[in-house]
Amino acid sequence: GVAAQEIIDRIEASDSRFPLDTGDLVDLKRKGVPLEVLRVVNQRRLTTPAEATTPTSTEVTAEDLVATPGQEASPRIPQPRLVIHHDRSGYSILKPEGFADLAQFQGARSLLQLVNAAPNEGSMPEIEISVLAVLVPPNDRERLVPSSLRPFIERVTSDLRDSFRQDGLELHAEAPTETWLAARPAMRVQTVTRATDGRSYLGAHTLVFSEGRFHIVSYHVSSEQSAQWRDQLERIVDSFSLDGSALESVADTGDPRASVEALFTRWRDSLRQRDFRSWRSLHRGLADSVANRLTWLDEIQRLTGDRRRLELGRIDLEKGRLEYRRFGLDGPSSGSRDFVQDRGVWYLATLP
Predict the structure, then answer these.
(1) What are the tens digits of pLDDT across the range 93-131?
(2) Position 250 pLDDT exceeds 70
(3) Which residue in 157, 186, 202, 267 has a CA-CA distance of 20 to 30 Å to 60?
(4) 250-348: CATH class
């Protein structure tokens, strides 16, 4: 029952800053937050250094995030169970069972495109997940280095904007931000697309380089479905893993404490760097299953992100337990993981 102007006055009086992205603003709009309040919140969003210093002519405003007033809402699309997709291009990813698989292969390019249903003309699928994998010619592979991620994804975004425009779609993009995916540095761009029918679609596109390839892992979701589906789509992107040979285990160094410290570092990095292969290798005999990928994703959500960091605490060699501290904007917390040594290799003893 508080008036919009009173909310704005409170925000301005407290000089509040908000750790939100465009998807959060979409959710707030759908929950009934007035547009004038959203404008103020959007102006006071916490930005990353890249967002603060990179100019963009396509800045997303609160008006870009909402569908046309009075537009008929789409019915809620239920979330099916997840399954693992193993692609011949050398990666795997979780996907919703039953989504239409529009995979395309053409020479050095492969495109996995998963949609809940075919869109109407001049529109987009309500929910879409895609992975573009491109094999780069040997002479050009030296360019696939972290320093070229930003200009590369800016060019990709520009090409996507031009392609969408030909289909009558208007794409707005935020500044690229640094992240990690599949144990590699990556670059991410969030987008909002307006279709000719007035609907808006939230998207995210993550670029990562691998051995001789680049991958772009993306999703789009309509503003009507974003509140229900966005978290699930983010987890699907995070589940992307580059398949390959078995990783080296944490071998016994002769110094038990140093070995446990190395085990903790590998575990921490497997969460921070979205590295399922490494995380799986730290658990003895762990299968690649949907349940285990979801357990890993739950750990990522609980212990990383939102400027959180993990630090090693006390090591109890007799009990086989290490303690850790998590620090973040929501305050510190602590936890522990059990470990075991088996035939010269150190493992995490149990799942979290």
Answers:
(1) 999 999 998 888 877 888 999 999 877 776 789 999 999
(2) yes
(3) 186
(4) alpha beta
Closest CA to 198 of 159, 170, 226: 170
* Number of CB atoms found within 10 A of residue 268's CB: 17
66-75, 121-130, 178-187, 204-213: which has the minimum mean pLDDT? 66-75
**Whether the Cβ atoms of residue 188 and residue 176 lie closer than 8 Å to each other:** yes
What is the domain partition of the chain in residue ranges?
Answer: 4-65, 82-242, 250-348
Q: Name the β-bridge partners of 168.
A: none
Element (H, E) at 84: strand 82-87
Concatenated DSSP letters of 286-306: ----HHHHHHHHHHHHHHSST
- The closest alpha carbon to 193, from 125, 132, 116, 130, belongs to 125
Residues 6+ apart with CB under 8 A from 133: 87, 89, 90, 91, 109, 110, 111, 112, 213, 214, 215
Beta strand ranges found along 119-231 (DSSP E): 127-135, 170-173, 177-181, 184-194, 200-210, 213-222
d(CA 245, CA 247): 6
Cα distances (angstroms) measured from residue 65 to each of 37, 172, 307: 14, 10, 25
Q: Out of 4-8, 194-198, 225-229, which region has the weakest mean confidence (pLDDT)? A: 4-8
Q: Which of 45-59, 99-113, 205-219, 280-294 comes out lowest in average pLDDT? A: 45-59
- Provide the CB-side half-sphere exposure for 228 (13 A, CA): 12
pLDDT in tens, 319-329: 999 999 999 88
Query: What does CATH list as the number for 82-242?
Result: 3.40.1000.10
- As given in the structure block, the two tokens for residue 240 are 């992307």
Neighbours of 85 (CB within 10 A): 19
Q: State percent of the chain over pLDDT 70.
A: 80
